[in-house]
């Protein structure tokens, strides 16, 4: 069967498989986690689904490691090098009430397949899987073995890949199709910080901010923020709020509550690696709340959120932003904001930085600039990564894109993190086409079904080329 015949004949089955994968809610759920389901039932079920496709389709070499990751393999067993195609089947949480389609169903409207994970990255998962199947069915011989490596915790801690590498070793070269068909040969370092401060009230007769909460994941710009306020006149607050919404062009609701009000503010949620494309509901809500006088500690905290963190996309006001010619600017996202009166207030920051900086430096600078904050480095495992532009992995992927589409693609420094960085000669590559907008982590996330044919052709040729590299 020719490549084109394979692609055409497999479309319907590919689509059915894709919809089945989308219908699994593979958001990590720590409340339901145990040793058999280390990230809860969803991510494990999605991994099992991928392996079940492999069994159905006659792959003979596959496995599951520690219930966290899996692989499907082709090529010579005793090859010196391994090509890794690194994917993930977990997804980020949804604000279901804001979606126009059922997030875990796989609804098709006008060539768009809607669902959480359709763009990040279950569409790429299914394309990569079928590309591997095309090469298996063709039974050509390769220099390298090829493994489709399936992670289940990419959206959180990446312990899935740690477990996999510990058991199976690290692939030498490859790519992760977790973005655009641009060869992202450089990725920034990423650190997560918790900024902790005391929110014990000193003067309870003032206005009181009972809580302010927003965000579920460090790497997502919060799209909704909620707060409750006591000892403040509702009518005046309502007036100020309507003016605020108009001025900032935002939406939200305010509701009278015993001696105060409850409030919901909608921002615009995007991936935390591009905070300047979103609108952080938490910092906007803090900006609104500056209109009222609260306790001293609450005011200090609101000021920090509304004046320092608000729109500080490049961490400049916070004092930790740097810029380098090879890797660009540091970016900053306040992904989780959690204040509750008389408890410990927390702001979780997601920081992406060029070579020459580190999470520890960020901690030092923040604690120095804001002595009332205690900064904790939660994770600084992702160091900046770079594959030289003349590496054959890079040059092959660039030329295959041109061969298939007739158009040029280019190199890029990624502000996001993909599994590509986990391999010495690993890049991020595919499967959105240049110019298509990413809907990753957004409301009404979708996959463009017209991408199926050209993306499949590029992936088959790319995997084949890497399988034959020295
Ligand atoms: Zn992803």
Helix content: 25-40%
Distance between the termini: 28 Å
**Class from secondary-structure proportions:** alpha+beta
Which architecture of the largest domain would the CATH scheme give at its second level?
3-Layer(aba) Sandwich
Determine the number of helices (DSSP H or I, runs of at least 4 residues): 11
Number of structural units classed as domains? 2
What topology, given as strand order, has the largest sheet? 13-14-12-11-17-18-10-19
Strand content: 25-35%
Oligomer: single chain
Global shape: elongated
Reported for the largest beta sheet, the result is: 8 strands, antiparallel
Bound molecules: zinc ion
CATH superfamily caption of the largest domain = Zn peptidases
Protein name: Dipeptidase
Cofactor: Zn(2+)
Keywords: Dipeptidase, Hydrolase, Metal-binding, Metalloprotease, Protease, Zinc
Pfam family, one: Peptidase_M20
């Amino acid at each position: 069967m020719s490549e084109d015949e394979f692609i055409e004949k497999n479309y319907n089955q590919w689509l059915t498989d894709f919809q089945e994968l989308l219908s699994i809610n593979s958001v990590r759920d720590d409340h339901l986690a145990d040793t058999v389901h280390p990230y809860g039932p969803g991510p494990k079920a999605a991994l099992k689904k991928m392996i079940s496709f492999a069994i159905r389709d006659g792959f003979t070499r596959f496995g599951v490691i520690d219930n966290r990751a899996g692989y499907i393999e082709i090529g010579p067993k005793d090859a010196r090098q391994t090509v890794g195609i690194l994917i993930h089947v977990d997804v980020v949480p949804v604000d279901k009430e804001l979606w126009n389609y059922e997030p875990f169903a796989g609804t098709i409207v006008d060539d768009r397949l809607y669902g959480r994970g359709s763009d990040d990255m279950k569409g790429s998962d299914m394309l990569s899987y079928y590309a591997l199947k095309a090469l298996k069915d063709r039974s050509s011989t390769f220099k390298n073995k090829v493994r489709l490596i399936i992670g289940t915790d990419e959206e959180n801690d990446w312990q899935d890949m740690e477990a996999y590498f510990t058991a199976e070793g690290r692939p030498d070269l490859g790519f992760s199709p977790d973005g655009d068909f641009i060869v992202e040969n450089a990725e920034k370092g990423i650190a997560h910080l918790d900024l902790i401060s005391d929110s014990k009230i000193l003067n309870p007769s003032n206005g009181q901010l009972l809580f302010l909460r927003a965000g579920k994941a460090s790497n997502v710009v919060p799209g909704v923020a909620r707060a409750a306020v006591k000892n403040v006149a509702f009518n005046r607050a309502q007036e100020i709020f309507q003016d605020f919404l108009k001025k900032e062009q935002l939406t939200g609701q305010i509701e009278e509550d015993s001696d105060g009000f409850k409030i919901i503010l909608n921002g615009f949620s995007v991936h935390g690696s591009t905070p300047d494309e979103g609108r952080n509901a938490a910092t906007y809500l803090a900006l609104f709340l500056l209109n009222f006088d609260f306790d001293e500690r609450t005011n200090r905290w609101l000021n920090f959120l509304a004046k320092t963190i608000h729109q500080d996309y490049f961490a400049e006001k916070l004092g930790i932003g740097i810029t380098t010619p090879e890797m660009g600017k540091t970016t900053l996202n306040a992904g989780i904001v959690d204040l509750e009166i008389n408890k410990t207030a927390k702001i979780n920051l997601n920081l992406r930085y060029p070579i020459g900086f580190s999470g520890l430096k960020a901690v030092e600078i923040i604690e120095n600039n804001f002595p009332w904050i205690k900064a904790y480095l939660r994770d600084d495992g992702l160091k900046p990564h770079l594959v030289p532009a003349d590496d054959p992995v890079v040059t092959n992927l660039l030329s295959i894109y041109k061969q298939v589409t007739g158009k040029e693609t280019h190199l890029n420094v990624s502000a996001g993190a993909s599994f590509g960085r986990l391999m010495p000669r690993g890049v991020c590559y595919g499967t959105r086409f240049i110019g298509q907008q990413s809907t990753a982590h957004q409301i009404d996330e979708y996959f463009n079904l017209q991408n199926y044919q050209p993306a499949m052709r590029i992936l088959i040729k790319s995997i084949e080329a890497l399988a034959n590299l020295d």
